[in-house]
Amino acid sequence: MQLLASYLMRGRAQAVLVTSVTALLSLIFFPLSYLSSGAIGLVVMQRGIRSGFEVMFGTLLVTTIFTMVVFGSPEMGPMFTITLWIPTLILAAHLAASGSLAFNLVYASLAAVMVVIAFYLFTGDPVAWWQGVLGPLI
Q: What is the Cα–Cα distance from 92 to 108, expressed in whole angstroms?
């Protein structure tokens, strides 16, 4: 892990490469999505939120183009961004600013509860919504 972290901290291109490869490999083995999110979180914690956004958008571009070419559907890039990378980016920036992991966990828990409630209010039936979104990929 130390080798991977030191490689991705060399520059923006390396961070985009690591994040993109782990995101795309997570289509085969989902736990690799944690490495993808962790890479963005590490960039935010070490280099700031602006660098995190740059890596996130570079990776979004790569994953969207790849999934469009391979699957014929560009939804995977934005899905990773909304469900994994934006929350990671926000929480990493909050942790870097506050320095309190306990407060960050409370903040994350409250945000998760609000997102779940909002999701149920806006979609009505989340199972049907996810089946519609993930249908082309499955």
A: 10
Q: Are the beta carbons of 91 and 108 closer than 8 angstroms?
A: yes
Which are the contacts of 89, defined by CB distance < 8 A and separation ≥ 6?
Answer: 40, 41, 44, 49, 52, 53, 56
Alpha-carbon span 70 to 121, nearest angstrom:
34
Average pLDDT, the chain: 87
Neighbours of 40 (CB within 10 A): 28
- As given in the structure block, the two tokens for residue 42 are 């590490």
Residue with more model confidence, 71 or 136: 71
Q: Where are the alpha helices (DSSP H) in the chain?
A: 2-8, 12-25, 33-47, 49-71, 76-80, 86-98, 101-123, 126-134
Global pTM exceeds 0.70: yes
